């Protein structure tokens, strides 16, 4: 029931999800196993954990959580658009971050969070294309994360 801390953990997971891919590419340490583990971590952090933030108290709430988790699962299954620098469907870390941010912006208002989750479900299963975030995918961002990782290691 520590939803405030849980939302901070989801947002921290979002930043770390961006960083791990950047560091793996910088170190040329990408692998098929790493990609599968990343998808599993995304499903756990941005599907299951975010579903718990929605605090299902009844049948309709539970159904929303199930649909949200299935939307994350669907999004992860169809991640690759085949087009460079484009996503197909909104990435689940972005959706989860929006739900967590809604918690902070509304003081934990459950109806607002559930409405945001419904909107994020629609965006995640949408077959439209979404551009990569230019700031978070920039070379400067990758170098900063890589440099931070190297200085700690």
Automatic annotation (TrEMBL):
The keyword Cell membrane does not apply. Residues 1-21 form the signal peptide. GO terms for molecular function: phosphotransferase activity, for other substituted phosphate groups. One of its GO terms (cellular component) is membrane. One of its GO terms (biological process) is phospholipid biosynthetic process. Belongs to the CDP-alcohol phosphatidyltransferase class-I family. This is Transmembrane protein 269-like. The gene is LOC113431951.
């Amino acid at each position: 029931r520590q939803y405030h801390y849980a939302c901070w953990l989801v947002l921290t997971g979002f930043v770390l999800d961006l960083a791990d891919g950047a560091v793996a590419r910088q170190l040329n340490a990408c692998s098929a196993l790493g990609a599968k583990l990343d998808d599993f971590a995304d499903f756990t952090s941005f599907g299951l954990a975010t579903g718990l933030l929605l605090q299902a108290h009844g049948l309709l709430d539970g159904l929303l959580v199930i649909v949200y988790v299935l939307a994350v699962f669907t999004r992860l299954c169809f991640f690759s658009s085949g087009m460079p620098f484009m996503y197909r469907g909104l990435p689940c870390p972005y959706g989860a971050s929006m739900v967590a941010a809604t918690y902070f912006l509304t003081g934990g208002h459950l109806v607002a969070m559930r409405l945001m989750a419904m909107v994020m479900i629609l965006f995640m299963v949408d077959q439209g294309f979404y551009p990569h975030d230019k700031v978070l995918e920039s070379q400067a961002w990758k170098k900063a994360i890589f440099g931070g990782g190297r200085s700690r290691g």
